[in-house]
Amino acid sequence: MTARTIVAATALISIAACAQQRQTPPTVVALADATSSVGTPTIRARYLNDLQTLIEWTGQHGGRLFGDTIEGNGLATSTVPLDVDFARSASTPNNPLYADADLQAKRQTAIKEAKALTSAPPADATDIVGGVVSAAGLFASRPDSAGLKVLAILSDMVQATAGPPGNFYSDDLSASAINSKIEQLKRLGLVPNLRRVIVYVVGLGADNTSQLPPQRILAIQNFWRTYFTASGATIPPGSFTPRMIGLPS
């Protein structure tokens, strides 16, 4: 087999894998920040709108949507109150009228839970890393799913905990300091396996004060890019945005 044949065969396999992902229902995990730094009605309403975008997208693709809050201890407080599978039920007759009614009922359930997520009492600490580790467990619970895997985080992304990786309002977030933090998180088992997971971050730097300096916002973004790269996640162009846009077609 020539080198050219091997390259062509590899490309065909890659194309087939992408096609299979598109045809198989996706798994979506949404994390909505419920901490005091993003506790204003304006920010919470924005998160709700973004969750509704995810609900519509997941419903259109027949996927499963999980949703949880980001609080002070992501591993201890995770309850995944939003869990809706938009796949057509086997008991639903093969009739568009029944299918549409079933989908609408599931949408309403998801929207109700999304409203609950975005009205949760504000927590003082912000443990985004713990939330991401919990989300990785949800993806791992569906190992046979060949569909797209999407992690959407609605947050200012300002980690603020007493333990690692620390407080992003005040910590040194130079490139070397970020690398040290990532290595520490790896040793603690807090960099999960997110291979084949597409990550979207919505609202980075947009806290209650709107006064984070631009250089601090960029440093926080650099930390999360480094963290998700270390996890093996896919970070598409435009994945750090102020609103939930750019989902796969």
Can you walk me through this structure?
The two termini are about 35 Å apart. The protein has a single domain (about 25-240), classed as von Willebrand factor, type A domain (Rossmann fold), CATH 3.40.50. Strands 3-2-1-4-5-6 form a six-stranded mixed beta sheet, sandwiched between helices. The model is unreliable at about 5-20 (pLDDT under 50). It is α/β, with parallel strands linked by helices and about 250 residues long. α2 packs antiparallel against α4 (about 95-115) and α6 (about 175-185) runs parallel beside α7 (about 215-230). α7 (about 215-230) links the parallel β5 (about 195-200) and β6. The protein has seven helices and six strands. About 45% of the residues lie in helices and about 15% in strands. The chain has helices at about 5-25, 40-60, 75, 95-115, 130-140, 175-185, 215-230; strands at about 25-35, 65-70, 80-85, 150-155, 195-200, 240.
Keywords for this entry:
alpha/beta, 249 residues, six-stranded mixed beta sheet, disordered N terminus, single chain, 45% helix, globular, Rossmann fold
Task: Describe, in short, the structure shown.
With 249 residues, this protein is an alpha/beta fold. The chain has helices at residues 3-23, 41-60, 74-77, 96-117, 128-140, 175-187, 214-231, and strands spanning 27-33, 64-70, 82-85, 149-154, 197-202, 240-241.
